[in-house]
């Protein structure tokens, strides 16, 4: 198959963007983007009872947060029903499909009898070879005329060659008696019309491929390259479900994972490139291929996700990280940053992003720059501010008035004051953290002083050194 590669993601809008769906979308996006191809989006909204506009919005928002951009308009499968029906009638005209007048009751009666006699319950329509002149004036479905002997081979890039005996396949319904197309027909027609060259989807669709190939063949259309990927399991090896934790992509945004960390983690979930764990989008696009996808289900591991997220936060551009942090606050329905807080976060980002694995951890470390005077120390920090440490802070502040505001100078001044009081700087760090941040765990004291500046640093130390300053 030559020409441009075209992949697609085709979710049903019956709920949020599931983590498994997000990974399918990512694999399709990486495969197309890494080869100069197109990545298309189709909403499979033919199930009118369960499809909702809210679910479509949730899917689009999830993809947007993950940074998976698609080419062209979003295609609605339901809107193309006339085209699907047209293909069913084409197949009928070619003799590749036939009208079947068997009612549901007759089909059910056939199956019950077959079960009772221990025969195959695969329905063989008595109308398959009936003379059209014998057709009654009654409702009918259109069925595909499936070959009854030989085999269908699904040449799958992940599962290998999968062979299915044609006598195991029934004559699939293409058009219902009310004239509406079935999902299996719609998928094939849409993929063909959209020019899809590679169908990368969950392996729960593997058996569908054999039946869908019948439509491709009958229409004389190119069969796409198949790649059926294993599902995602929880840490216990069972299919991922609510009991394992969050299933919807937007929940991961609300929990404070960065999108780049999520992309990296999902890419590694069932696909590998040597021993590489941490990689950029550019590397993922360059490396991703179908041969790297494993055959067994991948296990979701929150610790690995946190670890990769921390690495992506540390590696991120400060301004981009601040932008994504604001998106997190909005998604988690937390108060937005004031202009002053945003300015402070921008200056502090270099010392906040090391060792923060999620945005809540980043915000916890940023308390010193988000808080305003008077700083109210928490329980652990209060213990650091005894009479002795307050006295040392009191003698430190005048020395800082004229110090040049550089890390080396600040380290020299604080070490000298500590020495004069017969202690080491390590003993002074705790009270300084309590005074500057009101917390016992913070970025380096000197980073906080540099970010806060001379005036604010001295004001906070003065507050803390005053008697009863907590």
Automatic annotation (TrEMBL):
Residues 338-464 form the Aminoacyl-tRNA synthetase class I anticodon-binding domain. ATP binds at residue 242. It comes from the Bacteria. Its EC number is 6.1.1.17. It is an enzyme of class 6 (ligase). A motif ('HIGH' region) lies at residues 11-21. One of its GO terms (molecular function) is zinc ion binding. It catalyses: tRNA(Glu) + L-glutamate + ATP = L-glutamyl-tRNA(Glu) + AMP + diphosphate. It is found in: Cytoplasm. GO terms for biological process: glutamyl-tRNA aminoacylation. Its main location: cytoplasm. Transmembrane segments: none annotated. Residues 4-306 form the Glutamyl/glutaminyl-tRNA synthetase class Ib catalytic domain. Catalyzes the attachment of glutamate to tRNA(Glu) in a two-step reaction: glutamate is first activated by ATP to form Glu-AMP and then transferred to the acceptor end of tRNA(Glu). Belongs to the class-I aminoacyl-tRNA synthetase family. Glutamate--tRNA ligase type 1 subfamily. Monomer. This is Glutamate--tRNA ligase. It comes from Marivita hallyeonensis.
């Amino acid at each position: 198959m030559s020409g441009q590669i075209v992949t697609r993601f085709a979710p049903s809008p019956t709920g949020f963007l599931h983590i498994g769906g997000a990974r399918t979308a990512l694999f399709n996006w990486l495969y197309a983007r890494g080869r100069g191809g197109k990545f298309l989006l189709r909403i499979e909204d033919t199930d009118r009872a369960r499809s909702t506009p809210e679910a479509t919005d949730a899917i689009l928002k999830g993809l947007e947060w993950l940074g998976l951009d698609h080419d062209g308009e979003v295609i609605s499968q339901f809107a193309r029903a006339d085209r699907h029906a047209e293909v069913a009638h084409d197949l009928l005209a070619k003799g590749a499909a036939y009208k079947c007048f068997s009612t549901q009751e007759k089909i059910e009666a056939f199956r019950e009898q077959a079960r009772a006699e221990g025969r195959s319950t695969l329905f063989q329509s008595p109308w398959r070879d009936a003379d059209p002149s014998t057709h009654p004036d009654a409702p009918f479905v259109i069925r595909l005329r499936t070959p009854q002997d030989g085999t269908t081979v699904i040449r799958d890039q992940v599962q290998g060659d999968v062979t299915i005996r044609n006598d195991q396949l029934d004559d699939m319904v293409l058009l219902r008696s009310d004239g509406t197309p079935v999902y299996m027909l719609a998928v094939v027609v849409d993929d063909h019309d959209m020019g899809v060259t590679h169908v990368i989807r969950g392996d729960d669709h593997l058996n569908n491929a054999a039946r869908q190939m019948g439509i491709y063949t009958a229409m004389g259309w190119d069969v796409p390259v198949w790649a059926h990927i294993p599902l995602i399991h929880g840490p216990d090896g069972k299919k991922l479900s609510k009991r394992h934790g969050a299933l919807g992509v937007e929940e991961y945004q609300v929990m404070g994972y960065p999108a780049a960390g999520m992309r990296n983690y999902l890419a590694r979930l069932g696909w590998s490139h040597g021993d590489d764990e941490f990689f950029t989008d550019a590397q993922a696009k360059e490396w991703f291929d179908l041969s790297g996808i494993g055959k067994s289900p991948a296990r979701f591991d929150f610790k690995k996700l946190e670890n990769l997220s921390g690495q992506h936060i540390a590696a991120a551009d400060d301004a981009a990280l601040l932008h994504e942090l604001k998106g997190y606050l909005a998604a988690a329905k937390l108060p937005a940053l004031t202009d002053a807080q945003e300015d402070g976060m921008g200056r502090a980002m270099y010392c906040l992003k090391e060792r923060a694995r999620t945005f809540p951890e980043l915000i916890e470390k940023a308390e010193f720059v988000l808080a305003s005077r008077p700083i109210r120390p928490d329980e652990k920090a209060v213990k650091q501010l005894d009479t002795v440490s307050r006295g040392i802070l009191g003698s430190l502040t005048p020395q800082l008035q004229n110090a040049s505001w550089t890390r080396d100078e600040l380290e020299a001044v604080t070490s000298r004051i500590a020495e004069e009081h017969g202690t080491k700087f390590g003993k002074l760090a705790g009270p300084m953290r309590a005074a500057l941040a009101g917390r016992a765990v913070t970025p380096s004291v000197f980073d906080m002083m540099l970010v806060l500046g001379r005036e604010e640093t001295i004001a906070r130390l003065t507050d803390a050194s005053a008697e009863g300053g907590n």
